[in-house]
Amino acid sequence: MGFFDAILGRSKPKRANLDDLFALPPAALTLQAAADFVPTGVGAVVFRQVEGSAFDSAERESVALISSDPAASVRQTNDGFGYTWQVVSDADANVVNLVTNLHAVNAALVNQGFDTMLLCSTVYFAHPDGRRLALVYQYKRGTFYPFAPTGPKQRDNALEIQVRGILSGELPFEDDMSRWSPLWDAPGMDENPRALES
After folding, report:
1. What is the pTM of this model?
2. What is the pLDDT of residues 140-165, one digit of tens each?
3. Which residues neighbour 148 within 8 Å (Cβ) at sequence distance 6 or greater?
4. Phi/psi of residue 25, each to 5°?
5. CB-based contacts of 22-25 (< 8 A; 24+ apart in sequence)
6. Which residue, 47, 63, 135, 189, has fewest beta-carbon neighbours within 10 Å?
7. pLDDT per position as a tens digit, 88-135
8. Cα angle 176, 182, 184; round to 5
9. How confident is the model at residue 4 (pLDDT cuts 50, 70, 90)?
10. How far is CA 12 from CA 4, 9, 119, 142, 149, in A?
11. Contacts for 137 with CB less than 8 Å, ≥ 6 apart
12. Do the Cβ atoms of 127 and 145 come closer than 8 Å?
């Protein structure tokens, strides 16, 4: 932080650390024990797509890494807002494997110099009563926040605050709730979780 930033009370946001994602598996256990939200085995990496062979190579590298895992699958979709979602699924709903594969996508893009294109990573959860939840990692802030949609352009703010309270000791949460951006119609959010199948 610079001298003038200190005088004016400005602070630099925490920079992303891709290894923060590895805090998600133990946090998932805590969330399941405290609130009955079960990992669905689905998550996504969201990035702004750019043209060029280096970017195409980074995308191919990440897909190849994930495809080498027999329990994992990956699909890519564009959201109409200029962002691409690489949606990763783990057939066993294993959060450790899912996070490892999401990290591989991130690392492939960062290694090719496209870290500024990364927007966020998500890991999805479901409750037996049908509610859905995402834990979202923001790269530019180096923080997490919960997102709990309840319908078209509606979210459960009380649940989001509850989840922050449950996991505040395990994940670095975003303090500024105005930055808890909604991810309406997030690809993969509504996929049926294997863990809840009877």
Report:
1. 0.86
2. 899 999 999 998 899 999 999 999 99
3. 131, 132, 133, 134, 155, 156, 157, 159, 160, 163
4. -60, -50
5. 22/99, 22/103, 23/170, 23/171, 24/95, 24/99, 24/123, 24/135, 24/171, 25/95, 25/96, 25/99
6. 63
7. 999 888 999 999 999 988 888 888 777 888 999 999 999 999 999 999
8. 175
9. very low
10. 12, 10, 18, 11, 30
11. 16, 20, 21, 120, 121, 122, 143, 144
12. no
CB-CB contact of 103 with 25 (8 Å): no
CA distance 19 to 107: 10
| Other beta carbons within 10 Å of 29 | 13
Contact predicate 122/136, CB 8 Å: yes
Task: Please report, for the chain, the start and end positions of each structural domain, with discontinuous segments joined by +.
Answer: 13-188
The encoded tokens of residue 165 equal 């309270």
- Three-state DSSP class for 23? helix
Alpha helices in 126-195 (DSSP H): 157-167
Q: What is the pLDDT of residues 45-86, one digit of tens each?
A: 999 877 777 777 777 777 777 777 888 888 888 888 889 899
